[in-house]
Specification:
This protein is of the alpha+beta class. The chain has helices spanning 3-25, 62-65, 68-71, 105-122, and strands at residues 27-33, 43-49, 52-60, 78-86, 89-98.
């Protein structure tokens, strides 16, 4: 094979490896907002990752923080998140609001309890 063919093959292999590594960095998380959000840059949530749930902070990326859906998040909202686990939380790259029934079973109980608590404690205060 000519040098050009080897060079093209090498560039193709390196770019394929780079794309697959980058795609592996982002993971899918499911989350339920657990407290009334006061600071939209650090939202407390119950997050499900690899079958285990934990209390974690959701930290939005620059593209997410300007999203109208993110700015209107409330307690008990269910989310499907693509992001990266970092030391003090999950860096959110994209987020979709879900119905609580679309959450994995590990979070459905928490979401149901949260909605009942919200109906009993928080909703009457709004009047």
């Amino acid at each position: 094979m000519s040098r050009f063919s080897w060079l093209a093959l090498g560039i193709l292999m390196v770019s394929a490896i780079h794309v697959s590594v980058r795609a592996d960095d982002e993971q899918v998380f499911f989350a339920v907002v657990s407290d009334v959000p006061k600071d939209k840059t650090r939202i407390a949530a119950k997050v499900l990752q690899d079958g285990a749930s934990s209390d974690t902070k959701l930290i939005p990326s620059e593209t997410i923080i300007t999203n109208p859906v993110w700015r209107t998040l409330e307690v008990c909202h269910a989310l499907k998140i693509e992001g990266v686990k970092i030391g003090d939380g999950v860096k959110v790259m994209s987020a979709r609001v879900l119905d609580a029934s679309m959450l994995p079973m590990g979070l459905q109980g928490f979401a149901g309890d949260c909605l009942i608590k919200k109906a009993v404690e928080i909703a009457p205060l709004a009047e």
